[in-house]
Amino acid sequence: MSSKRSSRRRFIKTSAALASLGAGMSLPVNAQIPRPPGYPPRRPDEHYDYGIRSPFVTSKRIGTNGQRGTDPREGRPRDYGFRTPHHELFGTITPSSLHFIINHGYDAPNIDPVEHRLMIHGLVERPVMLSLDDLYRLPAVSRVHFIECSGNSNVTGRRFYPGWLRTQPEATVQDTHGLASCSEWTGVLLSTLLEHVGVKKEAKWFIAEGAETGFHSKSIPMWKALDDAMVVYAQNGEPLRPEQGFPLRLLTPGFEGVNNVKWLRRIKFTDQPQLSKRETSNYTSERADGTFRWFEFENGTKSVITRPSGQMKLSGPGYHDITGIAYSGRGAITRVEVSTNGGRTWQDAEIQGTIHSKAFTRFRLPWLWKGEETVLMSRSTDDKGDVQPSVAEINQELGLNLSHEWLEAGNPGTSHFNGIQPWRVKRNGEVENALFTV
Amino acid sequence: MSSKRSSRRRFIKTSAALASLGAGMSLPVNAQIPRPPGYPPRRPDEHYDYGIRSPFVTSKRIGTNGQRGTDPREGRPRDYGFRTPHHELFGTITPSSLHFIINHGYDAPNIDPVEHRLMIHGLVERPVMLSLDDLYRLPAVSRVHFIECSGNSNVTGRRFYPGWLRTQPEATVQDTHGLASCSEWTGVLLSTLLEHVGVKKEAKWFIAEGAETGFHSKSIPMWKALDDAMVVYAQNGEPLRPEQGFPLRLLTPGFEGVNNVKWLRRIKFTDQPQLSKRETSNYTSERADGTFRWFEFENGTKSVITRPSGQMKLSGPGYHDITGIAYSGRGAITRVEVSTNGGRTWQDAEIQGTIHSKAFTRFRLPWLWKGEETVLMSRSTDDKGDVQPSVAEINQELGLNLSHEWLEAGNPGTSHFNGIQPWRVKRNGEVENALFTV
Lengths: 438, 438
Hints:
The structure is a homodimer. Chain A is α+β, with helices and mostly antiparallel strands. Chain A folds into two domains: 96-292, Oxidoreductase, molybdopterin-binding domain (Sulfite Oxidase, Chain A, domain 2, Alpha-Beta Complex); 302-433, Immunoglobulin-like (Sandwich), CATH 2.60.40.650. Helix content of chain A is 15%, strand content 26%. Chain A has nine helices and 23 strands. In chain A, strands 4-3-12-7-8 form a five-stranded mixed β-sheet. In chain A, strands 5, 6, 9, 10 and 11 form a five-stranded antiparallel β-sheet that branches. In chain A, strand 7 (205-210) and strand 8 form a beta hairpin.
């Protein structure tokens, strides 16, 4: 179907649908708008200083696998694996208060920004120690980028299945895709800092280290420092939040989350990677033969429908706007297709708003639901020509046979999973996770 | 100076400056990064649900004219005229918690979104009453737009001068320009709703009404409904904040703030404006002959340097990045020029990030300060060719003679003011408001 015909068809469908929607809502002659509430309660002074949400808005992060509040192993709050509630959000910017959290040490450290320093050293001519004020004086850039944990929409094997909520029918999009968020970040390009420190030609890698308990560190190839890696001090207009690395983090746009080192205190240029545990055991993909793939960096192209999605209930047949987010670690989204019949046919979705490279891109498709049971799916394409794969294509690539049976038998699953996400709409309007059942 | 030469010159200047900056920061051989803090205190569970700022980050809104906390006339908090602290912000998105607030009734009403309705009626074929769920089902758009009160950077006359902080040397950029903020807004285009309600050809205006005590309402010309006016339910990814109209507001991109009716409950299409007090006395510009201009809508092109700005102090001579925001109510910013010598010469600033129409656009210029007293200024141009005027040009257009002497003598000032903002940098690095003194 050509794009022009598709657009025309969508227009007709939308208009008809709007009319049908409206029919149920025509105003009786004696209609009254509900009386607004009277004088509001007095608000505390600090809410004028820095505002808060309406008490009617209660979206929250939820821990990985539905756990929340307390880590059963430690009897204290978990501060990692907290997921963004995509089903309750709009547009492309994730509110900082709802940005997903994964920490590699203990909690977010409570750092005094005046005391904090960033050391840049190793294979450089002029090592430096920078304060936050030093960084504020340097040329800044502001860019919209997502961060995604490689465990996002993880189809885990062995250890966790069948308790792994992400694969179960009752999963929400927060459970399946909540480890990705998108912000406007401001900071200094690493390439700008390199102009100054004079990196030596033997440097092939850099190692970024955080200031949390445990000093999480990660080896990153040199080309990323020369490309778009940033030292970031602000998110969505204000200083970073503590859980996002206040006062300073590394941003490696499009690279798996583990590379975006928070509470950044040190960048060391080296001729080889450090081969730490998070480069050789955690954050690696297991092959069917039991070996692991090291040093995967870029998140593939991916999309997910956020409304309707798991555990929602459609109010009834009629017009519904399907909406979701698409992104790629390799560049800009160029196309999103949506199927409203379990993958038999696909329509081009409308891409809404500005497309930024390596950023959430919002898509939508008008849909006239006639009340049948069906499955909704989305499929993204990026400007490198990569198309979001089906589970069958991922199986073929990795030599796996991902399915409920395969995982129940104790076979490996995979992280770094960017397969198509299906949502089943039942006749009563209830929506459930349809992974492996389409 | 051609743009290419200008860009090359900036590059050289930046590099030299970076080198000089670094010279003071070279690492001694025995350098140690400061020890990070130990185990952090346990955070309350609710901060995992919905995050908060670092205790070291204390930016806040401040009331108009430096007043804060308490309205002296009523002995209670003022909920209007609270200003965005631009000097402490980054990028182009204003955090929702710091979006400026002006209310026309009492406080923000505490509206239950399930009970709230929007009535669209008047000169339409099919009046409707819409719930929030109805709106969620309709085609949505997400767009980045600023909102600016026509009183922003107001050069007020008669009643308030000389107590009017905006014109005084000690004003910060929050005092001078804090009544403008920028967000990613999500909602339904009014033109989409019009497809359904079938507006009659006699309709020349629409009147939008809010649900707060006092029912603020405003007449808006029909062409805006057909162009880009939106009924908005989300801001920066989440539902609107109460002070921004939760659960629903009108957005009239580029129009003066008073048109962006909050807590929107009613849109009535009419053949003429209502001529309310906020259309004929408040929110009108006084001419020198004592008459007023009614129905100004679009904010003109405007820019302001946010760093360095009033009440900041430069740490010393050397390299400093000058940064600020530019915007226009008529379209997209195409150029920002900066003068570092009180307007004698101008250089093209670099425009940072994506340019959205009718949105904050971030600009920057590298500046090597040699320690002299000087004045920094910025001047924006939009895609309609409009150039931000000087005070002299505004005087000529309005038939005024804005100056300290003119205002002290009780002559009229003007709202809807988009003149160039000068900041004086003194030899000791202190920065002050230089309005009328350049």
